[in-house]
Amino acid sequence: MTSGCKNIDLFFLQSMIDKTEPGVKINSYEIALGSKRGDNYTSMLYRIQLYGDNGWSKSLIYKCLPDNRQARSTYKSEILFNNEVTFYTKSFTTLMKYQEQKKLVDTFNSVPQCYLAQSDIVILEDMRCKGFTMLDRMKGLDFNHCRAILRVLGKFHGLSLSMKVDEPEKFKECISDAINEVYYKSENELWYKGYYRRAAENAVKMLESELTEDEKPKYLDKFRKFVNHESFFGYMVGLVSPKESLAVLCHGDCWTNNFLFQYAQDGSISEVSIVDFQLARYGSPALDLVSLLYCCTSVELRKQYLPELLEEYYDSIVSVLTQTNCLNHYPDIRQKLYEEVREYNVFGLGVALDMIPIITCDSESAPDMYTEDTINIDDEPSKEPYPVMTTSNLCRQMIADLVKELVDNGCLT
Asked: Any idea where the CHK kinase-like domain is (predicted)?
């Protein structure tokens, strides 16, 4: 049995499939790794191929907590996992029931089917079987892929805004009160203080090497002020706090690897699938937007296409609100969305300190969630998380470009 899949057996798989495909008899199954090192964090992914009578087969993605208990403790895997379970079993289910009741013409259907979600296991539809693929995280998003993601996020966020109007009590119970911030919260400040101090120091070193002596007073000083380790994490905590009236159910971890793409015969993008909701939160939709734009696109793309991309997102939200007859409840939505994107730009920079080194690192430099558990967790103190300390040319360039952009736009002062 592959490490991490000790609870899997034929009886377990059969009982699960019986709920969705009664009458199918599973005869055998095979297990393989579902991701490469560096492609996911805080959990382990496996691909399970099921075989049944008359040529029936199905592939599933099995997501579980790391076997290594020290890794679980360091990355707070249990807390993140429980948040994702709440998303699948309560929040997302409620949102999809609302969408079904509204009988939308253009529906949101960009989350894989979930077969099981419990405290230590999430089992999902394997989107690879439908032709979905993952992009190269180091290459980032081009205009067409970014536009496709923003259209899907617009639908996702639009459903929250609509349901909040139509079913406020149900929305509060199953979404705004059910999903809790698991990362940027005050009780984590001491735990992540050292983490972000190191990440900031790494970014400062990269800026010092990329900026000219003439540029440093303009850009480096402002960046140092922003990442002051005595106030930075608390500032990020304040930014994720929900602010009405536009607060929505956010994905919370918008970066390249959490979006899969299906393509038509002519090479155009036909569908997008969103995965990994461990950091799902209730907050400004701009939190998702700036994370995606500032961690996964180039400065050249943003300079040329940012207004057009934001309009695509806005149009997608308005389409949902129009179909649900809720648009009149948000009369100034375009202005407010643009104001929040500008206000939360610096949140994107805070996320980028952590994510850009991860995105641009070699796989061997990434944390390994598949290592064996070799210690007694009761005898060892929990280790503070340690950021990926990439300093590649690409990483340095992306960090420097982002800081320059935000300072030049008046967002980082």
From this structure: 122-323
Q: Where are the alpha helices (DSSP H) in 241-372?
A: 285-296, 299-323, 333-343, 345-360
The set of residues, in sequence order, having a beta carbon less than 8 Å from that of 394 and lying 6+ positions away, is 138, 360
Report pLDDT for 39: 57
Q: What is the pLDDT of residues 293-341, one digit of tens each?
A: 999 999 999 999 999 999 999 999 999 999 999 999 999 999 999 999 9
Q: What are phi and psi of 136, to 5 degrees?
A: -75, 115
> Any residues with CB less than 8 A from the CB of 114 and at least 6 apart, and which?
88, 92, 122, 123, 124, 125
Residues of the chain with pLDDT under 50: 374-377, 379
Residue 163 to residues 232, 234, 328, Cα–Cα distance (Å): 34, 31, 14
The separation between CA 360 and the C-alpha centre of its own chain, rounded to angstroms, equals 17
Q: Give the residue from 351, 355, 345 showing the smallest Cα distance to 413.
A: 345
- Distance in angstroms (rounded) separating the CA atoms of residues 374 and 2: 17
**213 φ/ψ angles, rounded to the nearest 5 degrees:** -60, -35
